[in-house]
Amino acid sequence: MIAPLLATLSTSALADKIVFAIGGTPHSLQGLTAQHFTDLLQERLGDAHQVEYYHSGQIGDERQLLQKLRLGTVNLAGISSIMPTVAPSFALFDLPFLVKDRDHLLRIDKDIVMTDLAQDAEEKGLHLVSTWENGFRQITNSKRAINVPDDLDGLKIRTPQSEWRTLMFKTWGANPTPMAFSEVFVALQTGVVDGQENPLSNIDGAKFQEVQDYLSLSNHVYSPIWLTASAKGWESLPDDVQSAIQESAAETQQWALAKGLELDNELVTTLEDAGMQVNQVDRAAFVESSRPVYEAYAEQVEGGQELIDRALSLAEE
Ligand code: EAX
């Protein structure tokens, strides 16, 4: 009688819960996406496993989530702009104006992310499950409208904790200040920083319009959010759980990109109605001053120039 009882116990102890976390707020696209995924996954897993979902950095900002994945206390996390700290090739998404639109993104995802970049992550002990959308990033600040890079001169702009995003803003003349997303609202409110850069749904999701006057639409980078596991943690999941995660994540990718497009179209009005002054940046001027970032990527990332060329060649298919 004892053997079957032990078998039951060990099965349930193995994977009775899947801990999943993101840094963003519930109302941001990544929050909506994470909830969508949680629901799909829970439906697939049924009663066998409980998906435990945390948002807003409740159990850690993205850097801490990376550590928790490695420690095994978190099974799945959404990791966005700090991915180049894992493997520098991910800074492909810190090359300004590289991603043309979401169709281009999907081609890059299939031909570069899920092959080359996923391999680089695997070598660093992380398993990429899927590429979701954080979104096209825009600049907000409390001082003035940003039209050309010179307008950023001396402005303190919060960036994610990635040297590539700080390099980008330094190149444009700003004074970048990296910090975790959950600290940004207070930093903007108290004037510790003048501005920040994020997709519209993160801006609205965290109510930055309450503490920022100017929204400059730059679309300077497309920032994905990667559903990530530790390589070891992933291997230790039962096959059926892996498949449930993979299938739910793939469905979620489609949902997220469609939702991202919808939100980009509607949130400019929402933010304008909230009192923000909105302008379009001079894209050509920004493209022109972004060259040093491409040069840095080609120099510092192994095979960097080839990745740039391949990504660019996927723009026109
Ligand atoms: O949860 O840190 C950031 O600005 C990123 O956009 C992050 O994904 C927000």
From TrEMBL:
Residues of the signal peptide: none
Gene3D superfamilies, alphabetized: Bacterial extracellular solute-binding protein, family 7
Record-linked InterPro entries: DctP_fam, TRAP_DctP, TRAP_DctP_sf
Keyword Protein biosynthesis: no
One GO term describing the cellular component: outer membrane-bounded periplasmic space
Keywords (A to Z) from UniProt: Signal, Transport
Protein localization: Cell envelope
GO biological processes: transmembrane transport
Keyword Methyltransferase: no
Top-level lineage group: Bacteria
Family statement: Belongs to the bacterial solute-binding protein 7 family.
The name this protein goes by in its record: TRAP transporter substrate-binding protein
Organism (species): Halomonas binhaiensis
